[in-house]
């Protein structure tokens, strides 16, 4: 079980991690500024195993890999949204951050609710209800388990 941090539609990568923080030399230094313009307390409140739940078009804007990386570094277990910008989706998979589509969840939960994600079954439990979501194919789950596409490719050598 993890806590939900809820965001609306069209959250862009600059709102996830603003461009001025990309100058910091490490993701650990950047992560304390995650969602600073939308929820200034996010980085200090999020705990490993928590979830980001968003409306449509999450991760639009610039193609910065750091947007997915700071969420992973903070321990976010997955981002669940109605839809994702393609480049954010790809960057998340590359680094091993689960990005899950659920059309109903965002509209029925609020900030602070708890949820449980079952990737293999494509099911989310929240507030006593069950929601369908992306059911990951075994190969995709294997890639995520290895830390992302890049780590998976490096292990195949």
TrEMBL record:
MF annotations from Gene Ontology: hydro-lyase activity
Record domain Aconitase A/isopropylmalate dehydratase small subunit swivel: where: 44-97
InterPro entries for this protein: Aconitase/3IPM_dehydase_swvl, AconitaseA/IPMdHydase_ssu_swvl, IPMI_Swivel, LeuD, LeuD_type2/HacB/DmdB
Pfam families: Aconitase_C (PF00694)
Keywords: Lyase
Top-level taxon in the UniProt lineage: Bacteria
PANTHER family, sorted: 3-ISOPROPYLMALATE DEHYDRATASE SMALL SUBUNIT 1, 3-ISOPROPYLMALATE DEHYDRATASE SMALL SUBUNIT 2-RELATED-RELATED
Family statement: Belongs to the LeuD family. LeuD type 2 subfamily.
Protein name: 3-isopropylmalate/(R)-2-methylmalate dehydratase small subunit
The organism of origin for this protein: Eubacterium oxidoreducens
Lineage per the UniProt record: Bacteria, Bacillati, Bacillota, Clostridia, Eubacteriales
């Amino acid at each position: 079980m993890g806590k939900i941090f809820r965001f609306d539609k069209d959250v862009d990568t600059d709102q996830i991690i603003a461009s001025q923080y990309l100058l910091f030399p490490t993701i650990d230094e950047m992560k304390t500024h995650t969602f600073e313009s939308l929820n200034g307390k996010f980085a200090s409140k999020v705990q490993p195993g928590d979830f980001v739940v968003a409306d449509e078009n999450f991760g639009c804007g610039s193609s910065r890999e750091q947007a997915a990386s700071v969420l992973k570094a903070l321990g976010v277990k997955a981002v669940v949204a109605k839809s994702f910008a393609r480049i954010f989706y790809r960057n998340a998979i590359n680094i091993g951050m689960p990005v899950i589509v659920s059309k109903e969840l965002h509209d029925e939960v609020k900030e602070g609710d708890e949820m449980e994600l079952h990737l293999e079954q494509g099911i989310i439990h929240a507030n006593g209800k069950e929601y369908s979501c992306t059911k990951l194919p075994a190969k995709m789950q294997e890639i995520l388990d290895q830390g992302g596409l890049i780590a998976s490719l490096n292990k195949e050598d």
